[in-house]
Amino acid sequence: MKKIYLLALALVTIFSFTACSSDDDGNSNPSENLIGEWEATTEVYRDFVNGELVDSGEEVYGDDEIERVTFNADGTFNSFYSESYVNNGEIEEYEITREGTYTINGDNLVITTTDDDGTDITEVSYGFSGGNLEIYEVDEDQFGGTEYRYEYTIIYERR
């Protein structure tokens, strides 16, 4: 669950993403394919330590975890993430929303968000498969000489 939370938070806060770039929806205008509301259904992940695969799997989003993003025709977007979980026997809920703008640069989205910490501009690659939006994220960290690499693919269905 921690991995899903971190991934969702990364999407909602619009960290660095890369994804598949094929478009099999038959629409030659990628912005038209992207426009609309999308809801996350599945996350596939692979975790590496010093280049060695240490964990992998697939998580399915359920009623206790919702992640949505809406891309509007005017170049704006908003995203919403909600999670309910049990902590020390009590149900807790977490929600976060983000708004910003996007432009399309080839197969990439350029995402701009602004908050109290300033403006964040991130380039995001995206793709479509079977009518679904797929976003692939790679996050790399290094602590004390150990290299960590986390790869996630989030699959979104159109709502």
Topology:
Layout: H1 2-12, H2 30-34, E1 36-49, E2 52-60, E3 65-71, E4 76-87, E5 90-105, E6 108-115, E7 118-125, E8 127-129, E9 132-143, E10 146-158
Antiparallel strand pairs: 1-2, 1-3, 1-10, 3-4, 4-5, 5-6, 6-7, 8-9, 9-10
Walk me through this protein's architecture.
The protein has 159 residues and is mainly beta. The chain has one domain (2-158): Beta Barrel (Lipocalin). 10% of the residues lie in helices and 64% in strands. The protein has helices spanning 2-12, 30-34; strands spanning 36-49, 52-60, 65-71, 76-87, 90-105, 108-115, 118-125, 127-129, 132-143, 146-158. Strands 1, 2, 3, 4, 5, 6, 7, 8, 9 and 10 form a ten-stranded antiparallel β-sheet that branches. The model is unreliable at 1-27 (pLDDT under 50).
Short description:
With 159 residues, the chain is mainly beta. The chain has helices at residues 2-12, 30-34, and strands at 36-49, 52-60, 65-71, 76-87, 90-105, 108-115, 118-125, 127-129, 132-143, 146-158. Residues 34-134 form the Lipocalin-like domain.
